[in-house]
Amino acid sequence: MQIRKKKQKSVPPVSTASLPDIVFMLLFFFMVTTVMRETSLKVVHIIPKAKEVAKLERKSLVAYIHIGPPLKPLQSIYGTEPRIQLDDAFATPKDIPTFVESVKAATSEPEIPLLTYSLKVDRETKMGIVVDVKQELRKAQALKINYSTSKIVDKEALQ
Amino acid sequence: MARSKREIQEINAGSMADIAFLLLIFFLVTTTMDVDTGLMRVLPPYVEEPPEDQPDVIKRNVFVVLANSADNLLVEDEYMQVEDLKDAAKEFILGKPNDPTDMAFPEFEPASNKPESYDLVIKYWGANKLVSKQIISLQNDRGTSYELYIAIQDALASAYQEVRDEVAKERFGKKYDDLANGNEQEQEQAKAVKKLVPQRISEAEPKDIGQ
């Protein structure tokens, strides 16, 4: 004997009309908070860690110099020794003055002294190549540099 | 005239979500969210030939840090692990201002010797405040690994930061960073601390041996 009668009520469909709005909101959030990736990396770098790090503000005033061994697929052509990447291409320390000039040319006059050159260097790299780059930067009057490092979370500070 | 009473058809918005998702995913893929952090440094301007007349810095005022191509560290003629460098540097920066017989630590001079550069020190500590003549000299080999170099730079920076914190706490009751981010008066106090404990790291041209 059946006690309960089978209900024949159908569930009303969930309205998905607001879904586009939600997604658009997410979209705008990402558009506002992020920066477009400008270059595709040709070198691998695992950057070292440090405690006394400072945040790099104003990304439009930062020029990147990548140093590290070439990516796996490129190693057959370029070898495994660390190389310098400026913009989208491999470079030698001699190309740095030209690079600095092009960065300066793309920046408005009053903001040139605020330009920072961020060195993203693989931690296994030897200092020789870094020293050459620094020397060229000094010659090109690009003196504000930033050794890119990620922050170690200090255990003492948390206690 | 009879208007045609045709009903306007509703636009199907069902695919709107798909389009928006597509855009969203595009942005997720092409953008970076990572915050860039790093150690800020200012390089010395380039000079064609290093000046002949080096300012005669007395040896005891210089804290020498050497790193070789095998990533060994020699600090003041002694082997050292990079973990211990911070404490050693801190001890050196603090020095022993009230012990004139001590020869291992840097010399001190009263702030009144150079009133133009120590004006803020004189303002907050008085003319008799002793200021250290410390310099840290860092020399690495071309074969030193970048990781060790950064570890050294970081250790030295932490040493200076901690000394500044101690000095700021003792005189102004606040940490150095809190002063530097505070109001106008506090910012001046932070500047005074910076004058008292200037970050003097001198990097020698690297040697090319043992490559």
Question: How would you describe what is shown here?
Answer:
The complex is a heterodimer of chains A (159) and B (211). Chain A has a domain at 49-151: Nucleotidyltransferase, domain 5 (2-Layer Sandwich), CATH 3.30.420.270. The mean pLDDT of chain A is 81. The relative contact order of chain A is 0.18. In chain A, 29% of the residues lie in helices and 21% in strands. Chain A is elongated. In chain A, the strands form two sheets. Chain A has a five-stranded mixed β-sheet, with helices on one face. Chain A has a two-stranded parallel ribbon with strand order 2-9. Chain A is built from five helices and nine strands, in the order αββββαββαβαββα. Chain A has 159 residues and is α/β, with parallel strands linked by helices. Chain A has helices spanning 19-33, 75-78, 96-105, 127-139, 155-158; strands at residues 35-36, 49-50, 54-55, 62-68, 83-86, 89-91, 116-121, 144-148, 150-151. In chain A, a hairpin with a 2-residue loop joins strand 5 and strand 6. Chain B has helices at residues 16-30, 82-94, 119-125, 146-172, 176-180, 184-196, and strands at 31-32, 37-42, 62-67, 73-75, 78-80, 108-110, 130-132, 135-140, 201-203. In chain B, strands 5-4-3-8-9 form a five-stranded mixed β-sheet, covered by helices on one side. A two-stranded antiparallel sheet of chain B has the order 6-7. In chain B, a hairpin with a 2-residue loop joins strand 4 and strand 5 (78-80). Chain B has six helices and nine strands, in the order αβββββαβαββαααβ. The relative contact order of chain B is 0.14. The mean pLDDT of chain B is 78. Chain B has a domain at 60-203. With 211 residues, chain B is an alpha/beta fold. Strand 1 (35-36) of chain A pairs antiparallel with strand 1 of chain B.
User: Roughly how much helix do the residues of chain A carry, as a percent range?
Assistant: 25-40%
Q: How many strands of chain A?
A: 9
Number of strands of chain B: 9
Q: Largest protein interface?
A: A-B, 54 and 47 residues
Roughly how much helix do the residues of chain B carry, as a percent range?
25-40%
Strand content of chain A: 15-25%
Q: Distance between the terminal alpha carbons of chain A, to the nearest Å? A: 67 Å
Biggest sheet of chain A: strands side by side, in what order?
6-5-4-7-8
Shape annotation of chain A: elongated
The structure class of chain B reads alpha/beta
Please identify the structural class of chain A as seen in this structure: alpha/beta
